[in-house]
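Reminder to self: tokens first, then the designed residues, so the page reads top to bottom the way the pipeline ran.
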């Protein structure tokens, strides 16, 4: 090989495997940082095996992938045999075209269309919820089928068509001829199709996201939802384990292949014997896999029976204490509490979403049914206006008495009928004190300071980005006057040359590693960044005089199937142990006096943290002045048009 070719090959190899190498190295990082290696440790592997939710997502992913692969392999093989037997060329071409459609169709189109179909069918039969494990399995089989067909069909075309005919002439039935003659000939294609279907199902996110139901979360969806804060190195640890398992299987396969005797001209009898042995082995393997799957399905059915209540909770990702880092597993603790108190088992299906808009879209579609949701204030107002919330029975929520009076009667729920405040927060400015001069660290003007060109991060969503300009200019963030939004757009255009990137979840790694020096973000998330900041980074935080104040609250949607159980869950979330554990875990301020007056919580947070989370202000007045309200459809369209103009330019 010529030197140039060697260099080219090396570059390709580096390009392909450098991300895997980085992932592997940082899975052993002692600190939480995903950009600065501070020392070797197996801590994240220990954390991974203590994370019940992630391990549950891995189990769900494997069950789904194995089921989809087996079903699509059987159906795909049968379909390939049928297509191969077609003699009408036009019909065969049409079948080939139809087979290719799921592969060339964008995943998002496939996902949305399948979701709409499942919703339609569910409503047609009066189902309470249209999406569940079965719908996700059907969706995965749908997009895996073409790949199996395309692997098996060429093998059928390569096979001598006279072989099964000869077998039947010798007395075989058509089925026996197919099993004894055709299956051994096409087995490589069948196995390849099975493996491809398994890997495609294992890796799928987009279609799974649109067709998933309550309580069944796959690993890709779990990782996506974790980006509400940041993907911790325990995900790197999981990816490393998966990588080495696959690598070991490949090495074993190669070793087995290399051990096979190589003969130039094997005797026909010997070859036939080997083929029979191989066929017998394939049958045994298939039987073991099928038996294991059957036993697993029976076990799931049996274990899921009995007098167990089900509660479906829909919350932001990483927005509850989940048992990681030796914290309280709130969901498990509630299940134990309910059994001890009422003598009945309850299973909580905990599902997460990435934004208020995602949650609203899924609920309004009628595709799913949830008992408790935790949206933000403006979304609660929108859901209330659309009759999507049920009034609460506060006799079942006695702990509501501990919610601070300042959080009663706010605009999104003026009569306190539909919501119980969960957390609240304020948007502020995060900056690296090692790179930003102290005299510059004030107001929103810092984000327009030419001195820090290329070190500034701006929100990558229209409402928050426009708000930074509106607050700086003294404009109303809820204005319906187009000229005010135009003025804010002009300010954002002037800022654009200074901006390094428009971000949301990416802000964590970029600020923690020192890649950027200034960003606007939520106060609670600032502490997550501080915990993982690099040694050469000193992140600090301040509130501009005018900024956004927000509240997230627990509500019961109109699709709820067990309202009393949902109210008991809300009441439990307000009790001391889970309320304090959740506040400590997510670093957001709590409106619950059992939390912010607790001496242990105050000591754990520390004086500086408490000063940021609970600033000495009249929250009710500031909230009334600066909180977002829900804009009408026409105004939202206009704002989105302005935002697209900014991003395009």
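Designed residues (649 positions):
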């Amino acid at each position: 090989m010529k030197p140039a070719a060697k260099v080219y090959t090396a570059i390709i190899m580096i390009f392909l495997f450098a991300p895997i190498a980085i992932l592997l190295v940082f899975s052993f990082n002692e600190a939480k940082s995903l950009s600065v290696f501070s020392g070797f440790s197996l801590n994240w592997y220990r954390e991974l095996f203590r994370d019940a939710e992630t391990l549950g997502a891995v189990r769900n992913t494997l069950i789904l992938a194995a089921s989809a692969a087996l079903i699509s392999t059987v159906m795909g093989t049968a379909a390939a045999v049928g297509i191969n037997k077609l003699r009408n060329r036009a019909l065969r071409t049409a079948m080939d075209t139809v087979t290719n459609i799921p592969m060339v169709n964008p995943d998002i189109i496939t996902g949305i269309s399948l979701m709409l179909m499942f919703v339609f069918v569910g409503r047609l039969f009066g189902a309470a919820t249209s999406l569940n494990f079965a719908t996700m399995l059907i969706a995965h089989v749908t997009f895996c089928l073409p790949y199996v067909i395309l692997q098996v069909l060429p093998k059928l075309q390569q096979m001598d068509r006279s072989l099964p005919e000869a077998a039947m002439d010798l007395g075989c039935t058509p089925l026996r001829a197919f099993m004894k003659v055709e299956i051994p000939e096409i087995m490589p294609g069948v196995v390849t199709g099975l493996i491809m279907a398994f890997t495609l199902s294992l890796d799928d996110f987009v279609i799974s996201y649109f067709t998933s139901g309550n309580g069944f979360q796959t690993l890709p969806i779990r990782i996506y939802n974790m980006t509400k804060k940041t993907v911790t190195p325990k995900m790197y640890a999981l990816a490393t384990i998966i990588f080495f398992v696959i690598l070991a299987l490949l090495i074993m396969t190669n070793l087995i292949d290399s051990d096979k005797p190589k003969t130039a001209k094997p005797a026909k009898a010997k070859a036939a014997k080997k083929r029979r042995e191989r066929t017998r082995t394939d049958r045994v393997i298939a039987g073991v896999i099928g038996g294991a799957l059957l036993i697993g399905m029976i076990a799931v059915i049996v274990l899921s029976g009995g007098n167990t209540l089900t509660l479906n909770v829909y919350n932001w990702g990483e927005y509850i204490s989940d048992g990681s880092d030796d914290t309280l597993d709130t969901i498990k603790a509630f299940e134990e509490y309910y059994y001890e108190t009422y003598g009945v088992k309850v299973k909580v299906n905990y599902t997460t979403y990435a934004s208020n808009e995602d949650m609203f879209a899924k609920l309004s579609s009628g595709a799913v049914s949830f008992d408790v949701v935790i949206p933000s204030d403006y979304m609660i107002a929108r859901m209330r206006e659309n009759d999507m919330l049920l009034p609460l029975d506060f006799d079942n929520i006695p702990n509501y008495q501990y919610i601070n009076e300042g959080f009663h009667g706010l605009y999104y729920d003026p009569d306190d009928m539909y919501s119980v405040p969960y957390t609240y927060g304020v948007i502020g400015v995060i900056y690296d004190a090692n790179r930003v001069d102290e005299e510059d660290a004030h107001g929103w003007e810092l984000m327009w300071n030419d001195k820090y060109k290329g070190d500034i991060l701006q929100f990558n969503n229209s409402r928050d980005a426009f708000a930074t300009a509106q607050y700086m200019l003294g404009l109303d963030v809820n204005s319906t006057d187009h000229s005010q939004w135009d003025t804010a757009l002009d300010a954002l255009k002037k800022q654009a040359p200074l901006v390094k990137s428009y971000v949301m979840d990416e802000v964590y790694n970029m600020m923690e590693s020192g890649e950027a020096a200034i960003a606007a973000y939520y106060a609670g998330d600032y502490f997550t960044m501080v915990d993982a900041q690099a040694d050469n980074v000193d992140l600090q935080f301040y509130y501009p005089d005018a900024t956004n104040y927000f509240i997230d609250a627990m509500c019961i949607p109109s699709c709820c199937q067990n309202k009393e159980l949902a109210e008991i869950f809300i009441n439990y979330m307000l009790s001391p142990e889970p309320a304090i554990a959740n506040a400590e875990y997510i670093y957001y301020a709590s409106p619950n006096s059992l939390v912010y007056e607790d001496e242990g919580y105050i000591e754990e947070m520390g004086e500086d943290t408490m000063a940021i989370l609970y600033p000495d202000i009249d929250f009710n007045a500031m909230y009334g002045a600066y909180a977002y309200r829900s804009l009408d459809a026409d105004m939202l369209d206009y704002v989105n048009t302005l935002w697209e103009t900014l991003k395009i330019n």
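Residues 293-306 have pLDDT under 50 and may be disordered.
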